[in-house]
Amino acid sequence: MKASTVLLIAIPVLLVLAGLLAVATTISRQRSSTGSLGREARKADRSEAGAAVATIDESEAARARAGEARQSLEPAGAGKPVLSAAGGLIRFGEAPADPETLGVNRRQFFNRSIVGAQSLAWGGFSVAMIAFLWPSLSGGFGGKVRAGNRQDILGEIAEKKQPFYVPEARAYINPYPEAALGRAKEAYSETVLPGLEAGLIAIFQKCVHLGCRVPWCQTSQWFECPCHGSKYNRVGEKKGGPAPRGLDQFPIEVSGDTVTIDTGTVVQGLAIGVETTGQEAEGPSCV
Question: The whole model's pTM is what?
Fold first, then answer.
């Protein structure tokens, strides 16, 4: 599965999980803050409420009479606000704010602040992870890496008798023989054929067995993995060891004389037994 497909699936899943976490946290905090009354407590509350009704009715009439008497004696400026014992302003004729209502508002504020902070944290983490996984579109591994001048690359390979290594692409460049192009068209992916026709092949440095970096053996002129002994010929076709196939490749673009490796596209190596060049070991193995 391609990296872009994985990201298209992973991003919505992460966002949905973050939303569910935020909703669950809000509900949990609201339940824990408000709490719930037991059966006995509710029964006691109902009995106390019934007993208090009569007292409230009697006291209401007395307060009404006292209020009427007080209004007749109040001066003209009696409508001005005064400070309550709690320090808040109270106007005559207005009921004071319910402390419980104020407490709920504070709880809601803190709950929303916590949920907002968690959402920001999850959002930042998601963005950082996406930025890490998203393939680079220009430069660096995961994008298109400029390897250099074609003639210079071929000249260095011929002089040192070893592949041209491009560290930014994590890949080796080796020449591909023109005489093998007929067999290559039957075995290789169309994605890498333009590079082969230009006389070059870009080989991923990672062993397809367990992912070790495969070095070049100068004596055998093969790639030989030091971890478990897998061996590949000059163009990465499997020659021995536990590897399940040949080394993977990257497409090569040759524009003018500039060679560019597309590391955003990994082409699976050839199956076991498929060889196009017939190159055998040219000396002792290193592994």
Answer: 0.55
